[in-house]
Each structure stands twice: as C-alpha cells, then as structure tokens.
UniProtKB/TrEMBL annotation:
The encoding gene: LOC120064604
Assigned keywords, A-Z: Mitochondrion, Mitochondrion nucleoid, Transit peptide
Residue ranges of coiled coil: none
Keyword flag Ligase: no
Protein name (database record): Mitochondrial nucleoid factor 1
Localization per Swiss-Prot or TrEMBL: Mitochondrion matrix, Mitochondrion nucleoid
Gene Ontology, cellular component aspect: mitochondrial nucleoid
Primary subcellular site in the record, as a coarse category: mitochondrion
Biological-process GO terms, alphabetical: mitochondrial respiratory chain complex III assembly
Alphabetized InterPro entries for the sequence: UQCC2 (IPR037698)
Pfam families (UniProt xref): UQCC2_CBP6
Length: 130
C-alpha cells in the first residue's frame, strides 16, 4: 500500500508546476523535497501514519486541480489591493525580492547608524546666580 501512495505523490509532483521566478521559494520545489524526505526508501517506505499521508495527498491534489478556485469563483483576478496576478508574480520574483531586501538593508543600516551614534551632548550649565 505504501508503494501506491508513493506513486500517487510522484504523479502529483510531476503535475505540480514549478515557478522558476521563485528560486528557493517555489512551492513545487518544496513539495518535491518533502516527498523525497517522507519517502526516503521510495516504494519500500514504511509510513507511521498512512491516514495522515492520505489526508495530505488529498489536500494537495485539491489545490493542484483548482477545486476551490472553481467552487468559489472570483469576480476579478485582482487582490484587495487591485494588483493583478501577473503584477503579483512579478513583484514576488526572486530578483525583485532580493532588490527589496537590499533596499531594506540600506534603510535599516541608515537608521541604525543614525540612532546608534551617541552624540556627546552635555547639558549647558545654568547661569550662576550671584
């Protein structure tokens, strides 16, 4: 029975698309790694919780076949921000994410430098009353 589960997950991995614009953050790549880890011995892997394995498979299969997208159609292909799917995809591409990280580092570095330098401010002496 474990062999059949393994083959079902392999078929799911073959069907699951990879997003090359999300290097190291792609769900398809993550799924393949998890299947490799869970089925270390391939078809001969002994599963500790076969029912849980079946639940995970069924959930992933529903996502992969767009069950929920068809069950709950959207009126528009945008998010609440008004950004389209393609614009989101472009923004979340690895190259753009790296640029944003670099910009954050630049801003963070500027802020830390500005606030970490301790200016030696001594209060002025109050005028002496004579």
């Amino acid at each position: 029975m474990s062999a059949a589960r393994y083959r079902r997950f392999l078929k799911l991995c073959e069907e699951w698309p990879r997003d090359e614009s999300k290097k190291g953050r792609d769900l398809g790549t993550f799924l393949r790694q998890r299947v490799t880890h869970a089925f270390r011995e391939g078809e001969n892997t002994q599963l500790s919780d076969p029912e849980k394995c079946d639940q995970i498979y069924e959930s992933l299969a529903r996502i992969n076949t767009n069950v929920y997208r068809e069950r709950f159609p959207r009126t528009r292909d945008t998010s609440f921000t008004g950004v389209t799917v393609e614009e989101c995809r472009m923004l979340l591409a690895t190259g753009n994410m790296q640029k944003m990280d670099e910009e954050k580092k630049g801003l963070w570095k500027t802020l830390t430098e500005r606030f970490s330098t301790k200016q030696d401010v001594t209060p002025e002496k109050a005028p002496e009353n004579k």
